[in-house]
Design goal:
By secondary structure, the chain is mostly helical. It has one domain: Acyl-CoA dehydrogenase/oxidase, N-terminal domain (Butyryl-Coa Dehydrogenase, subunit A, domain 1, Orthogonal Bundle), CATH 1.10.540.10. The protein is built from 6 helices and no strands. It has helices spanning 2-17, 19-23, 33-49, 51-60, 69-75, 94-107. Helix 3 (33-49) runs parallel beside helix 6. The longest helix is centred in the middle third of the chain and has 17 residues, at 33-49. One of its GO terms (cellular component) is mitochondrion. Keywords: Oxidoreductase. Its EC number is 1.3.8.4. Residues 33-107 form the Acyl-CoA dehydrogenase/oxidase N-terminal domain.
Length: 108
């Protein structure tokens, strides 16, 4: 048990000294081509429609009324990623939902 804690301390020390190397880890290597394409398209959407407003939203804690992000996200089919196609969703599952949320979060 002591070795486990000692190893954890060593790992933490490495991470704290070299955060830039740790931050470069990506899960994209684990995605198939469809998932990568989905990730890239959501990232582009988020950079174009969310990133320009992120700083102001964070500073004022108010969302700009001049854009309807909810509608834009719906038009881009981001609502209902996990909902079955028979109900108007994409039926893609929770991995795709997580990919979308990660890219939206990255832009904001």
């Amino acid at each position: 048990m002591q070795r486990l804690f000692a190893a954890g301390k060593n790992f933490s020390a490495v991470l704290s000294r070299n955060r830039t190397h740790h931050a470069s880890f990506t899960t994209s290597l684990l995605f198939d081509d469809t998932q990568k394409q989905f990730k890239e398209s959501v990232a582009q959407f988020a950079q174009e429609n969310i990133a320009p407003y992120a700083e102001k939203i964070d500073r004022t804690n108010c969302f700009p009324k001049d854009i309807d992000l909810w509608k834009l996200m719906g038009d881009f089919n981001l609502h209902g990623i996990t909902a079955p196609e028979q109900y108007g969703g994409l039926g893609l599952g929770y991995l795709y939902h997580c990919i979308a949320m990660e890219e939206i979060s990255r832009a904001s």
